[in-house]
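Customer escalation, tier 2.

The customer says the design service returned an amino acid string that "doesn't look like it belongs to this structure." They asked us to rerun it and document both sides in this ticket. The original C-alpha cells are below, unchanged.
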C-alpha cells in the first residue's frame, strides 16, 4: 500500500536530522517547535518506525532513520528539480540559485555578478562566501567556485583555468634570513601557512617531485590575500597562486623561492552536484562565469580554459 507521505513531513524530518535539534530545526524552518514535532511523529506513525532518538545533548538518527534520510533527501531534491525544470516559463529564469564563492573575488567578478542578477530579475540569487568547501547536500547549494589541487569526488567540475602555486618571499626577508637552497632549509624559516579546504592549517607543502614535506608555521590564515600581504611585509615565506601575485612579482615586492623544489598546480573550477540534468539557472550562471574568465584572461599562456 502506498504511503501518503507529505513533503512537509520529509522537510521536517531531514532538517531536524541535519540540525540534530528540534528547536534549531524549527527556528530554521520558521515553524513552532510543536508543529515540527507533530510532523515527525506523523511520519514515524506512517512508516511504523522510530527515525530519531533523543540523547542527553541532541537528536540522532536510528538505523532505519539513517536509511530513510538518504532516500528522503533524494526525493526532496527530485521535487526541487521538477519545480526548477519549468523555471524558464515565459522566457525568464525563475526560482532560486544558491552559490558558494571564495572571499576576495575581483572587482570585475562582482560587477559581472551584479549584471547577471540585473539580467534575471525573477531569479532569487543567494550568495554565500567562505574559504571552506561547503557541503552541497546539507547546505542546499546549487553551484560553487573552488580553487584546489584536487577536486572532491562526487561533484562535476568545469575547469576555468589552472594556476601554478609557488613559494615566495620579500627581498627584505630573504636578505635578513637568507635564501633557502633546499627544502630542508625551510626549517630555519618562518612559513606563512594557508588552510586545506579552508578548514585547517595545511602543514604539508607540495614538492615538485610529487611528495609533500612538513613545515613549521609562523602565521596561519585561510585568507590567501592576507598571506600575500604578510609575505610582502617580510613576515616569512608563503605558498600562493601565481596569478594572485603577478603584479607583486613584476614590481619586485615578492620573488620566487625554491622554484625548482616547491610547488604544485591549482585548478580553479566551477563545481556542482552530479545530477540528472543541469537546472537552467545553474547553466546560465556557469556560462556567465566562463565568459568572465575568458574576458579576464584572454589567451594568457599560463592559463588553460577547460571544457
Amino acid at each position: 500500500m502506498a504511503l501518503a507521505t507529505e513533503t512537509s513531513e520529509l522537510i521536517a524530518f531531514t532538517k531536524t536530522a541535519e540540525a540534530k535539534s528540534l528547536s534549531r530545526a524549527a527556528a530554521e524552518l520558521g515553524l513552532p517547535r510543536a508543529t515540527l514535532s507533530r510532523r515527525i511523529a506523523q511520519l514515524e506513525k506512517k512508516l511504523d518506525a522510530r527515525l530519531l532518538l533523543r540523547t542527553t545533548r541532541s537528536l540522532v538518527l536510528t538505523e532505519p532513520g539513517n536509511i530513510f534520510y538518504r532516500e528522503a533527501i533524494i526525493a526532496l531534491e527530485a521535487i526541487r528539480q521538477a519545480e526548477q525544470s519549468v523555471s524558464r516559463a515565459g522566457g525568464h529564469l525563475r526560482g532560486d540559485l544558491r552559490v558558494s564563492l571564495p572571499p576576495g573575488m575581483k572587482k570585475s567578478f562582482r560587477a559581472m555578478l551584479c549584471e547577471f542578477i540585473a539580467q534575471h530579475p525573477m531569479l532569487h540569487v543567494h550568495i554565500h562566501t567562505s574559504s571552506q568547501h561547503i557541503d552541497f547536500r546539507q547546505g542546499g547549494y546549487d553551484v560553487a567556485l573552488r580553487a584546489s589541487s584536487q577536486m572532491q569526488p562526487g561533484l562535476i567540475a568545469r575547469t576555468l583555468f589552472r594556476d601554478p602555486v609557488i613559494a615566495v618571499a620579500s627581498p627584505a626577508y630573504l636578505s635578513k634570513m637568507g635564501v633557502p637552497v633546499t627544502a630542508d632549509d625551510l626549517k630555519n624559516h618562518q612559513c606563512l601557512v594557508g588552510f586545506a579546504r579552508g578548514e585547517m592549517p595545511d602543514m604539508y607543502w607540495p614538492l615538485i617531485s610529487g611528495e609533500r614535506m612538513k613545515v613549521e608555521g609562523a602565521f596561519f590564515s585561510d585568507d590567501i590575500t592576507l598571506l600575500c600581504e604578510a609575505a610582502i611585509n617580510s613576515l616569512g615565506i608563503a605558498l600562493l597562486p601565481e596569478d594572485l601575485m603577478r603584479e607583486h612579482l613584476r614590481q619586485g615586492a615578492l620573488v620566487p623561492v625554491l622554484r625548482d623544489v616547491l610547488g604544485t598546480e591549482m585548478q580553479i573550477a566551477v563545481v556542482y552536484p552530479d545530477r540528472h540534468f543541469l537546472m537552467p539557472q545553474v547553466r546560465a550562471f556557469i556560462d556567465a562565469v566562463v565568459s568572465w574568465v575568458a574576458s579576464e584572461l584572454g589567451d594568457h599562456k599560463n592559463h588553460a580554459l577547460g571544457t
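Tier 2 assessment: The sequence is consistent with the input. Residues 63-84 form the longest helix (22 residues). The chain is about 40% helix and 25% strand. Sent an explanation to the customer and offered a walkthrough call.
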